[in-house]
Amino acid sequence: MQIIWLGHSGFRIEIENAVLLIDPWLEGNPMFPADQRAAATQGATHIFLTHAHGDHASSALAIAKDTGATLCAIHELAEYLKRQGAENVIGFGKGGTLEAHGAKVTMVNASHSSSIDFAGGDAIHGGSEAGFMIAGEGQVIYVSGDTDIMADMDWMADYHKPNIGILSCGGHYTMDMARAAYAARRYFNFKTVIPCHYKTFGALAQDASELKAGLPPGVTMIEPQVMDPIRL
Description:
By secondary structure, this protein is α/β, with parallel strands linked by helices. It has 7 helices and 16 strands. The protein has helices at 37-41, 54-57, 60-67, 75-83, 152-160, 177-187, 209-214, and strands at residues 2-5, 11-15, 18-22, 46-48, 70-74, 89-92, 97-100, 103-109, 115-116, 124-125, 130-136, 139-143, 164-168, 192-196, 220-221, 230-231. A hairpin with a 2-residue loop joins strand 2 and strand 3 (18-22). It is globular. The N and C termini lie close together (6 Å).
């Protein structure tokens, strides 16, 4: 398995026979080098969107058209993307599981907001915010999406048993480093934690040292570097 950070909340996850792009915000992302776009998207089979905000979903349609990847998102966002010309789209909901070339991706709850705020004019209803549990190669990755701590993390951890956590933790819009560390201690039994949704803007945390200090013993935190593969 290989995980590559695309900056902010974007990831390229190579798992089983799938290449999954999670929230691949490339155009306008100050962390993402524009000359790496082809490398980031090459061979993509699926694009999964946690919610509709522009810093997560605004590049998805163009990437899908370039690569032929299947766009996967909550129903309302999927329907919007269809109306914008996306051809291969699957809308699904929380509790739903999609098979993706050997990997299984289940949509789970998150606590945030979701609107299509990148189309010009007033924001459009974009369905509900979500996270994902991605299972494959004997591992389960929890992609939290933009969220605060939730009591739902209790049953989600017990049911799905993720050993890798990709956690939003920059604060201001999501849980901060201390809250993400608390969630990891209280609810999960991670072996590896990868922070995201930080460094991008001045309002967000600029390093993950507080998260690392708050994790329980035995948990490895990998602070990702853009386009630098993490092999697990």
